[in-house]
């Protein structure tokens, strides 16, 4: 009840208008959505590694992001979603991610850098929130985006594959070392024996390809820690895919 009243007040204070051109009744008009640059910022482990991060990837097979977090519309959309609780923004953010993914996987953009991308029905796993933050926000923004993204490609989705069982400080403002320490041991894999595959029988973790979905990545510390527990549970590959790279 309180959240409904709060959202109503937010609507009165901040009328629905395009984050780019201020057109009324939409947060992202079609024209502005098309203008967002989705060049991507990949990072791969191994000898061909591209390094947008301050440290090499140890457990992740790679990280890709669809847009630059400093693109004003993208930054505003993520901020409004997470801190003003405007869940409708998950739709256009997921579309940015889906368009980017389709561009790399199906149009073979710069194929020489992306030959090892997973294309055969990977399992989509959103980065989880701990219970305290989930109660505060009322939803997990990564899960909202992941559901739309997975539905677009008909990929199997696991929202309870990994849980965050320890509360951590916000990563914003922390150093690289503090970020690594902050998330160490914060995640664990649920249902280690089996996971449910959409439209098919239960599959074991062994030899599965996982794509972790989140809104923003900065150093990759959170994605790396989740990849660690998934690899230890038997996952074959773990990739990070985010809307934006800070």
Automatic annotation (TrEMBL):
Q: Which SUPFAM superfamilies match?
A: PRTase-like
**What sections of the protein cross the membrane?**
none
| InterPro entries on file | ComF/GntX_DNA_util-trans (IPR051910), PRTase-like (IPR029057), PRTase_dom (IPR000836)
Every copy of the Phosphoribosyltransferase domain together lies at: 204-238
The entry sums up its family as follows:
Belongs to the ComF/GntX family.
Question: Which PANTHER family would you find in this protein's record?
Answer: DNA UTILIZATION PROTEIN YHGH
Q: What is this protein called?
A: Phosphoribosyltransferase domain-containing protein
Species whose genome carries this gene: Candidatus Komeilibacteria bacterium RIFCSPLOWO2_01_FULL_45_10
């Amino acid at each position: 009840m309180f959240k409904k009243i709060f959202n109503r007040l937010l609507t009165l204070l901040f009328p629905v208008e395009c984050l780019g051109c201020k057109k009324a009744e939409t947060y992202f008009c079609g024209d502005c959505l098309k203008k967002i640059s989705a060049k991507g910022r990949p990072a791969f482990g191994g000898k061909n590694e591209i390094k947008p991060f301050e440290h090499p990837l140890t457990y992740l097979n790679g990280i890709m992001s669809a847009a630059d977090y400093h693109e004003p519309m993208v930054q505003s959309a993520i901020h409004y979603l997470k801190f003003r609780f405007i869940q409708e923004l998950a739709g256009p953010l997921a579309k940015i991610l889906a368009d980017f993914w389709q561009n790399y996987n199906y149009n073979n953009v710069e194929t020489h850098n992306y030959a090892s991308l997973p294309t055969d029905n990977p399992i989509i796993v959103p980065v989880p929130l701990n219970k305290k933050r989930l109660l505060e926000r009322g939803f997990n923004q990564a899960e909202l985006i992941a559901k739309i993204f997975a539905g677009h490609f008909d990929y199997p989705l696991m929202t309870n594959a990994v849980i965050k069982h320890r509360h951590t400080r916000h990563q914003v403002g922390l150093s690289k070392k503090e970020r690594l320490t902050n998330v160490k041991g914060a995640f664990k894999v649920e249902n280690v024996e089996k996971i449910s595959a959409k439209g098919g029988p239960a599959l074991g973790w062994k030899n599965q390809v996982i794509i972790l979905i989140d809104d923003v990545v900065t150093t990759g510390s959170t994605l790396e820690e989740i990849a660690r527990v998934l690899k230890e549970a038997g996952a074959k590959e773990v990739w990070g895919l985010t809307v934006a790279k800070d």
